[in-house]
Amino acid sequence: MSHTRILIHAVFSTKNREPTLSKEIKDIVCEHIQEETRKKSIRLLIINGHLDHLHCLISLGPKQCIADVMQSIKGGSAYWFNNKSGLAGSGRLTWQDDYFAVSVSESHLERVHAYIQNQEQHHQGMTYYQEIERMAEKLGFNLGPSAEADGNE
């Protein structure tokens, strides 16, 4: 049996960064994602977010890749919300195509976990784009000049 501990911090936003994730909707969507990831043997350590995005801390299994896990989380949650949740009257849930994902070292695990857990407090003083811009700068990612204008990360 293979044993892995590949920690990923993934962030993804609603389409056009629309603030569609009220506290109630966010909690319901996060709970659904937690249930579905358990069923699919995706090790989701924590999920949380704010009005226009979600953060996930994931431990990849030996046969999992980021793209497949993110497709399962994003595609599955949008499909469920829009077609099966009974919440369609709340509006549609659509995610942007892209996501932001970085590896997390064991030495930073607790800090990243706390950061995700405290998203509402964190976003009292910073927008989602400012957060992504800061993360990208710290990690050496180039978002490009039109990232904020066209809604792409």
Structural notes for this entry:
By secondary structure, this protein is α+β, with helices and mostly antiparallel strands. The chain has one domain: Transposase IS200-like (Alpha-Beta Plaits, 2-Layer Sandwich), CATH 3.30.70. Helix content is 42%, strand content 19%. The protein contains six helices and four strands, in the order E-H-E-E-H-E-H-H-H-H. Strands 2-3-1-4 form a four-stranded antiparallel beta sheet, with helices on both faces. Helix 1 packs across helix 2. The radius of gyration is 15 Å and the shape is globular. It starts with 5 loop residues before the first strand and ends with a helix. The C terminus is likely disordered.
Short description:
With 153 residues, the protein is an alpha+beta fold. Helix content is 42%, strand content 19%. Helix 1 (23-39) crosses helix 2 (66-83).
What are the key terms here?
single chain; Alpha-Beta Plaits; disordered C terminus; 4-stranded antiparallel beta sheet; 153 residues; alpha+beta; 6 helices
